[in-house]
Amino acid sequence: MAPTMEDRPLVQVVPLGRVDETAVNVTAAHLQAVLDLNTQILSARPVPDYALVPGRHQYNALSIIDALTRDAPPSVLRLGLLRQDLCLPIMSFVYGEAQIEGQGAVVSLYRLGTTEDGRPVSPDQLYDRLAKITLHEMAHVLGLIHCRAPGCLMRFSPNPGHIDRMDMIFCPDCSMELVRRRTRLFRNYLASEP
Fold it and tell me: 10-192 domain in CATH 3.40.390.10?
């Protein structure tokens, strides 16, 4: 018998600062529809000024994930969404970042709303990109790593054009691995519930 929504692990979607309500809802809907995870949208938290990298005008994604997961219950996953630009100490920018087989991820809309030459994209294109990056990062949280299959959601995306060319699906190998890891996550989740 398939798990009911109550039996599915919970992902809490956490807006950080002012994030477009549609973006938050698109994120939650794709996590439910594609990854089969229950979602809960939490109240917005302030922009994470503690993660601002001096001189770069960007936010350290690892610091944000650490803060997001610090107070999360053990059986809950968290995804932060923000409009500000993200980076890692060794990368000039990232669309998102995740703890592989961890509890948290963060995704930024900052670079998803423009073309490579800086022109704005349509809201539909922005939300499509956001959904793809969100699914990619949460699949990392579930334990998937980057994939080389063309079009797979787990393929590394160096630019917005690459995101646009990706399909909203995982390749057969990643799909099988995702099923295996979700099944294990469901078992662990059910075992942790009173």
Answer: yes
